[in-house]
Amino acid sequence: MLYFHYNVVIIIAVFSSLFIIGTQSREYHHLPLGPYMNGPESVAFDCKGDGPYTGISDGRVIKWQGQIQGWTEFAVTSPHRSRDCDGLDNSIDEQYCGRPLGLKFDMRTCELYIADSSLGLMKVGSRGGVATSLSTGVDGVPFRFLNALDIDSHSGVVYFTDTSSKEYVEAMKSYDHTGRLLKYDPRTQVVTVLLDSLVFANGVALSQNKDFVLVAETTASRIKRLWLTGPKAGTSNIFAHLTGHPDNIHRNHKGEFWVAQNPSKPVKLDQFGEIMESLDTFAIVDSSDVTEFRNTIWIGSVVQPYLVYSTWYLGSCWCMGE
Description:
Helix content is about 5%, strand content about 50%.
């Protein structure tokens, strides 16, 4: 399926009264997951640039291998998972089957870190397989609902969220504020609470300079910023107020932040929290993740059986002036 969304017009050249106009637009496509695969919550690419990888509702992490091989199983998060889990889409089964949500590769080691909603913080090697558990709680309090993560590419420190101490639906309805932003240091294997009392803690993104980290508060329709370095280190403030409920946050190579939100469309924010672009197109029904990789935007959804991806299309026309 193919969609166009026109939003940029560029004047390329002018010759007297005759000129060329280049019209730049986004082209949208669907990449189906395959039979009995659903809910690609987030998107990741490995240290070789291969992928995308995504976690689906039946507990598997799958990898796109191209048109010939299609999607293949890369990893699972539960050591007890059986083939009976394949194709399931039921939160009741997550304790047994697993539910990988946040995904991020450590580009230094090529290991994939996984925030599994039921099984905790995990990682798996570059060849995949059964993921290893890193942490299931902090300060004697078990994780209830791990959601998203990001990795410091220099230190390997993992920033991640525990959404709430309550069950998912109850947390959404009650405006619960027991969410936490946490840090895992792979050198010491210690987990530290950075922020607590968050309103449905969700997406996480580290700034390009690594001086602050963002965390989405979904039901509050806002993004909070925690300063990590400088004179404001250890303090937090509101980075952006949004019209929708933010989900995952991803930083692109320019230091800008893509934010998935519902029911509003995804937006791109600059380093000051100002909106730079909105993916306002009917091609996106809902979104849980927006990842920009090599000039292509990948959009995940916790409920759909496909990924959406978008590339730029440049058309032109000869136009007459007065």
